[in-house]
């Protein structure tokens, strides 16, 4: 899933390509992806992009009529810039294409069709969400967002208050909860906890020294990831994210800090990775899914 650093880079890359460009049309083959109906998506036709930004994990594309196209890419969604004229879609609801933004060509460009942006989703369960709204806060998942962790106003004191309010909740889930802190998902919560040398199951309410260590790790991991992604093109962002991970997605590989094997825990429909030596005093965490199946690790 694209998280804060990747969505920040996507917004910057798309901003350079889209601001000032006029929308010829917006096609939405996957009608389930469109979560609003008033104003209609046709209201974007003929408008020009004025800004591209980010709120949490959402892309916010603004146009000169005052409307905003808000996109949440969910777990398997992505953005693809298209230089050539689009090929015909496979039909409503078929294939990975969720939506297509076709731009007007510059004066004198006689090529058929137009360049633009495709929103795609390579998954059986379609969760990519598109909203056309007068204000981004009309999207519930934006209106309920917690603070941005790289905002100057996100101080260690404010972070400590969030953790204290979460009480005995596991810190892994608290970091991922968008209502508490915006933009952090499964991958970067793994990376932050590894950098802080803290168990994913540690209670959120913790001593001040632990709060400080975790806050410093959060700022460092996210800040470095944003810097790595800065200037990276849309087509290369996924590979850049994978390359930057130290434990997430690296089950069985050597921890870059201590050399122990990175371990994995499976839960629900997701997983997380950690280093037992660095984070849990050498004790492997129980894998609840494997335990139910009678599998020993």
Automatic annotation (TrEMBL):
Residues 2-108 form the Formamidopyrimidine-DNA glycosylase catalytic domain. GO terms for biological process: base-excision repair. Keywords: DNA damage, DNA repair, DNA-binding, Glycosidase, Hydrolase, Lyase, Metal-binding, Multifunctional enzyme, Zinc, Zinc-finger. InterPro entries: FPG_cat, FPG_N, H2TH_FPG, Ribosomal_uS13-like_H2TH, Znf_DNA_glyclase/AP_lyase. Residues 246-280 form the FPG-type domain. Belongs to the FPG family. This is Fpg/Nei family DNA glycosylase. It comes from Agrococcus sediminis.
């Amino acid at each position: 899933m694209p998280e804060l650093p990747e969505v920040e880079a996507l917004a910057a890359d798309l901003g350079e390509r889209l601001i000032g460009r006029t929308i010829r049309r917006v096609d939405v083959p996957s009608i389930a992806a469109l979560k609003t109906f008033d104003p209609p998506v046709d209201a974007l036709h003929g408008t020009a992009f004025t800004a591209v930004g980010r709120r949490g994990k959402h892309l916010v594309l603004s146009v000169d009529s005052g409307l905003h196209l808000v996109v949440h890419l969910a777990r398997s969604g992505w953005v693809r810039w298209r230089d050539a004229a689009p090929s015909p879609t496979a039909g409503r609801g078929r294939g990975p294409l969720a939506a297509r933004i076709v731009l007007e060509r510059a004066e004198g460009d006689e090529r058929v069709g137009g360049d633009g942006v495709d929103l795609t989703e390579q998954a059986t369960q379609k969760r990519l969400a598109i909203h056309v709204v007068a204000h981004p806060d009309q999207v519930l998942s934006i209106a309920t967002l917690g603070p941005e962790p790289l905002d100057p106003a996100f101080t260690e004191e404010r972070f400590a208050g969030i953790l204290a309010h979460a009480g005995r909740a596991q810190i892994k889930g608290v970091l991922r909860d968008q209502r508490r802190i915006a933009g952090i998902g499964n991958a970067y919560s793994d990376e932050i906890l590894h950098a802080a040398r803290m168990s994913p199951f540690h209670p959120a309410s913790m001593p001040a020294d632990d709060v400080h260590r975790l806050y410093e790790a959060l700022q460092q991991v996210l800040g470095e990831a944003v810097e790595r992604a800065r200037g990276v093109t849309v087509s290369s962002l996924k590979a850049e994210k994978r390359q930057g991970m130290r434990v997430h997605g690296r089950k069985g590989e050597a921890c870059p800090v201590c050399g122990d094997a990175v371990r994995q825990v499976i839960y629900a429909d997701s997983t997380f990775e950690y280093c037992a030596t660095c984070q849990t005093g050498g004790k492997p965490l129980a894998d609840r899914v494997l335990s139910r199946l009678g599998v020993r690790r």
